């Protein structure tokens, strides 16, 4: 546990050292947030509400989804893949560490730094420019925090799983790019899932992806409330545990494969 | 003494897919799965005792790194057995690695963007090192490796030599009994090499750490290693002391004599006169035929000597000789 904390703390500090990259990322995220919000608002036209979304909440939605980009590394994470391909992974295998927990701790430190540097900061800037919706009471704020944490955890386990492809293929990065792109569609990052036709929404909710983004956003926007809220938090956890088990299993196979084929 | 490393019939064969070249190469590469086998390591047998400092030599591609990877649990052997400190390195990797230290050449275990000291401090938690022991080791290694000037510098800003020193420190904070070093001095300048050699010597002599190192720098071997193993094409060709290596494969020794006065002819019976100028003569002789003292006796009985030195054959030349002339084809026992 102490090791987990120390790892996360270092990763947090490491992320803080990338000042220029952070600033550049922040500006880009805000810029595209503005474009996305103006497109969506234009689509609303004269209507004041579409599928439960108001103009205010759709603007908040664009802010939130942009604010989650860095926190959840929505455009891809390839550190583990790189480690496998360069052989850097051997330095970790030579330590008495669980590779899975190592990367989890590492990503937690990074995520917390990004949550503030490129999450909260985006929402603050949005607040200065627009009217926004907020969670309606303390309970919703708490639920939001929990679901945000679960969303990170689930996204990390998912990204880890994708990265494991590197043990089997030197071209795993292309495969990863495709999967991360697909995830952004099914998660509600590109469009709120509420605006999708019902059958497509149902399809999306059969995957883990809405539990990374759409659920968090709908809790924030007070669309998910009451017992449904607990149910969805529970499902987030179920996906986390399920994907964790699969990841650990595949990781063991991957390490074995590497140790036979050579690094 | 109970050996710390035991290797029996160890082999590692890699299967490498054939890659075609030419017009239809991409198609062929896609549809065929023809593989050829590379015998990186082939039937190694040896034991290493606690406290030994072994130099593992061989030309590029000989199988040195592959051997070390099997000894550290990173690779599964194709055949044979490895036991290190009672562990099967591959099968019990997580428990085993706690007891060893390893530095693989250019690969760093330190955090690239953080000050060196942060990576070192982290190891206290990775290995669960007791606080007092950790402080003691850390301050000791900081002194010996002269790390203090750059403890606060991010690793990416270190020179190669500084990084290697920091990595050595990182590999040793948990008091491993066994240290594996793959090319620890590669690419370093003379001063940095010297520092690292001194440190390895200290570990072996004072802390009784068993060390196995691969290197291309024969000065490393000459200064450090009591025992040498030479491997080529995956086979162990020589295993023994430096002296025995020189005896068997070394070139000739030289006796350099400065005479007190000029003699027209300074030939002696058993040695060959290589050069004679300005009262300085260089004799070459074979250690199997003649000892240095016998030769000195012969020369001094006939001439007045002012000064003399015996020059041993260069180990670099000896080893080059072995590779080039393939003196060691059959594994010797
Ligand atoms: N993962 C691998 N796949 C295929 N061949 C390999 C692999 N690793 C090493 N080899 C081959 O095995 C031989 C020994 O390599 P290595 O142990 O790295 O040699 P050394 O360290 O002595 O230079 C070389 O021919 C090398 O090309
Ligand atoms: Mg090598």
Please report the first level of CATH classification, the CATH class of the largest domain in chain B.
Alpha Beta
Order of helices and strands of chain A: HHEEHHHHHHHHH
SS-based class of chain A: mainly alpha
The total count of helices of chain A amounts to: 11
Termini gap of chain A: 30 Å
How many helices of chain B does DSSP assign? Answer: 11
Query: Which descriptor suits the 3D outline of chain B?
Result: globular
Number of strands of chain B: 13
What is the gyration radius of chain B calculated from CA atoms? 25 Å
Q: How many domains make up the coordinates of chain B? A: 2
**Straight-line distance between termini of chain B:** 20 Å
Regarding quaternary structure, what we see is heterodimer
Largest sheet of chain A: 2 strands, antiparallel
- What composes the largest sheet of chain B? 6 strands, mixed
The succession of helices and strands of chain B, N to C, reads EHEEHEHEHHHEHEHEEHEEEHEH
Give the rounded overall mean pLDDT of chain A: 95
User: CATH H-level name of the largest domain in chain B... which superfamily?
Assistant: P-loop containing nucleotide triphosphate hydrolases
Share in β-strands of chain A: under 5%
Q: Can I get a quick summary?
A:
Chain A is mainly alpha-helical and 263 residues long. Chain A has helices spanning 2-16, 19-44, 55-72, 79-86, 89-93, 99-129, 138-163, 172-186, 198-204, 214-220, 226-261; strands at 49-50, 53-54. Helices cover 74% and strands 2% of the residues of chain A.
